[in-house]
Amino acid sequence: MNQLPFQIRVPGSTSNLGPGFDSIGLAVNRYLYLNVEAADSWHIAFDQNPVNLPEAEENIIYQAAQMVSEKYNKKLLPLSVTMQSDIPLARGLGSSAAAIVAGVEIANIIHELQLSKQEKAHLASCFEGHPDNATASVYGGLTVSLHTEQKTETVALPAPDIDLIAMIPSAELKTKDSRNVLPESLSYSEAIKGSAVGNVLVAAILQNNWELAGKMMDQDVFHQPYRESLVPDLPTIAALARDFGVLGTALSGAGPTINCFIPKGKGEYIASILKTAFPEYHCEILSPVNHGVWRLAEEEKTF
Ligand SMILES: Nc1ncnc2c1ncn2[C@@H]1O[C@H](COP(=O)(O)OP(=O)(O)OP(=O)(O)O)[C@@H](O)[C@H]1O
Ligand SMILES: N[C@@H](CCO)C(=O)O
């Protein structure tokens, strides 16, 4: 326990980018900060703006840290974790993955496990059940992954040179509820189309061809068509946004946030148009970031 106290920072993320369902993640400049100290019993809470989250063993940060501790046969002693965050909860910006990655990192530091990024990403993906947000929060940048219980294969790429306008509704949508509207299976021909659309999306992003990437976002067959019942504004926003220079529009993760991918520096102009057209959404300009989970040096500590 001689590591204590310490602070870590974990980026939030968007995922799927349309057809990259349960595979593609992108870390963004919204962060979960945690201050971790010794304590007599577990206590996990936000520093300001308290929200209704479990304070102890029911909290996913504790559960992820405990999962890693058990895997490495270590005893997890009680800790006090104080958090600050500008990642909205249950809005599709990877709040749960950031919390899970934080739990993995806490165990890594406390037990001096020296886990690699691949190991952290695998542990966090096993906990969350899919790798897209978790890998983005571990590696930073753009991540393309295949997750199985045995291994999480990730190609980690630099953050692309674009910005995003996140259109965030006031109501939460839990990932669990948003996955409940998805079908059990797809036909062979639909699966082939879905895979081709995802392949072209990745190739277009690698060539910085966001026009083409945007077209692929519209052609997802894996999840967006089914989730339109929960997020009916998606096609309307996508159609309007295109007229004002948005390169592509996609559901952020499981929603309900809708992301507009835009040329760097055009955010204020396009956001002002979107805010006028859709006043019920909170519009935030986000930028991709290259750093994943990070232990802060003394001079970097924020609270
Ligand atoms: N900092 C945190 N500490 C503890 N629990 C958290 C924290 N952040 C998120 N959670 C838990 O995760 C839930 C939200 O997870 P959910 O997967 O539904 O949405 P999300 O991760 O924000 O969006 P998405 O997975 O679509 O990107 C919260 O309701 C809360 O239970
Ligand atoms: N790929 C996940 C991301 C949300 O956690 C989904 O769309 O359900």
From TrEMBL:
Catalyzes the ATP-dependent phosphorylation of L-homoserine to L-homoserine phosphate. It catalyses: L-homoserine + ATP = O-phospho-L-homoserine + ADP + H(+). Coiled coil: none annotated. Pathway: Amino-acid biosynthesis; L-threonine biosynthesis; L-threonine from L-aspartate: step 4/5. One of its GO terms (molecular function) is homoserine kinase activity. InterPro entries: GHMP_kinase_C_dom, GHMP_kinase_C_sf, GHMP_kinase_N_dom, GHMP_knse_ATP-bd_CS, Homoserine_kinase, Ribosomal_Su5_D2-typ_SF, Ribsml_uS5_D2-typ_fold_subgr. This is Homoserine kinase. The keyword Nucleotide-binding applies. It is found in: Cytoplasm. Residues 202-278 form the GHMP kinase C-terminal domain. Belongs to the GHMP kinase family. Homoserine kinase subfamily. Keywords: Amino-acid biosynthesis, ATP-binding, Cytoplasm, Kinase, Nucleotide-binding, Threonine biosynthesis, Transferase. ATP binds at P88, L89, A90, R91, G92, L93, G94, S95, S96, A97, A98. Its EC number is 2.7.1.39. It comes from Scopulibacillus daqui.
